[in-house]
Write a structure and sequence with these properties.
The protein is α+β, with helices and mostly antiparallel strands. The chain has two domains: 15-177 and 237-327, Bira Bifunctional Protein, Domain 2 (BirA Bifunctional Protein, domain 2); 333-424, Anticodon-binding domain (Rossmann fold), CATH 3.40.50.800. The protein is 37% helix and 21% strand. The chain has helices spanning 15-32, 46-52, 58-63, 88-97, 146-163, 178-192, 201-209, 223-227, 238-254, 298-301, 316-323, 327-330, 346-357, 372-381, 392-397, 418-424, and strands at 36-37, 43-45, 66-68, 80-83, 106-115, 127-136, 168-174, 259-260, 272-280, 288-294, 309-315, 336-340, 363-365, 386-390, 399-404, 410-414. The strands form three sheets. An eight-stranded mixed beta sheet has the order 1-5-6-11-10-9-7-8, sandwiched between helices. A five-stranded mixed beta sheet has the order 13-12-14-15-16, sandwiched between helices. A three-stranded antiparallel beta sheet has the order 2-4-3. Helix 1 (15-32) packs antiparallel against helix 5 (146-163), helix 1 (15-32) crosses helix 11 and helix 5 (146-163) runs parallel beside helix 9. The longest helix has 18 residues, at 15-32. The chain binds adenosine monophosphate (AMP).
Length: 426
Amino acid sequence: MIKAIRGTRDLLPPETVLWNFVEAAARDVFRQYNFQEIRTPIFEATELFARGVGEDTDIVSKEMYTFEDRTRADSDKGQSLTLRPENTAGVVRAYIEHNLGERGLNKLFYIGPQFRRERPQKGRYRQFYQIGAEVIGPPTAGSESPARDAEILEMLAVLLDRLGVANWTLLLNSVGCFDDRQRYNQALRKALEPVIGQMCEDCQRRAATNPLRVFDCKVPEDQPIIDKLPRISQYLDEPCREHFAEVQAILMAVGVPFVLNDRLVRGLDYYTRTAFEFTHGALGAQNAILGGGRYDGLSEALGGPKAPGIGFAIGEDRLVLSLQESADAVVKKPDAYVAPLGAGMNRPAAGLARELRQHDLIIELGDESFRLKKSLETATKVGARFAIIVGENEIASGVFPLKDQTSGEQVKVQRADLAARIQAAR
Ligand code: AMP
């Protein structure tokens, strides 16, 4: 038997109803904040991610699905391609390629699959889905403003509340600018020197390549050491400090609660200032539902113009997991099951079903080969609220038996009144 690849999965009904519910809510909220959709390709040049995500991140060094394309006519080597592990790099590439900066501030969102070769577990997959957004533009369009950071965070709070995600926590930090981090990295290296021998192998590697990443460490024995390291918050220069203070002030003004966490870092040079994560208590080890931050230097790192930006990516798989308990509420069952009874009845039954669907009702349609008992059993199985029997007599008289599947009660209803009767029970 051929099975789905490890770390990938089929999303089946009724769970897909939840996925659609989440995506529809996201689209709704994004529209209110004037975001528009962008769709970038699922594979890109490997170099885009090496530069856009960073060579020494786990994603690029260990987790990418990279392959060589077939040999090109003009060279003896194919191009190196990679299935996107995230979508920000693709969006910024598109921004540069299409000169989107000419439009001023771009507020873009995306919804789609991403690929990382991680060890699969609950809430962690090799093909997973992200809902994300980016605000990017030339500095003259206000792309650096703390108002943009606060707006994005408020939008996320609204979306999570709208979805009924209870108990989220917004963790907030500022990682400063390039100069701040130079000074901070120096201090961090110095503080790590005497203790690094006691830390895990990953941390030893991180200390050499990118010491900020030490804060990603989850090894319990390393935590007391990490707790004593200097924090980026002590190294912010005045403009960065002010920027961060203003983000917090706006959040307080609009009533979005947050928790400062100066362990939260993004370790690459082009990540700047605001960094954040939303977590959810019920998710266990994989408790981050979404992450994001500012990347004022990313466009330039990719060879583009100066284009400050801020964005986030929601892990849709995890978001859906956190909603699963309330799943029943959003799965809509058919309003009615139309049961054709006897030869030749499929045609008039199809006509009636179509009529009812035009009244925005969800209709399941049976088959004339089913006996009445089987029809009613099927109506129960699909969870229909009512069953409507369509036989020769009913078509002739224009009066249909409408059976309430919950109470078992059956009444005769004129064809023209059927839709209203069914709607009244919603
Ligand atoms: P990142 O792009 O690493 O900042 O991740 C953003 C969000 O995507 C995380 O907070 C997770 O919710 C989600 N995510 C990342 N990797 C995975 C994965 N392998 N499986 C499921 N969700 C993921």
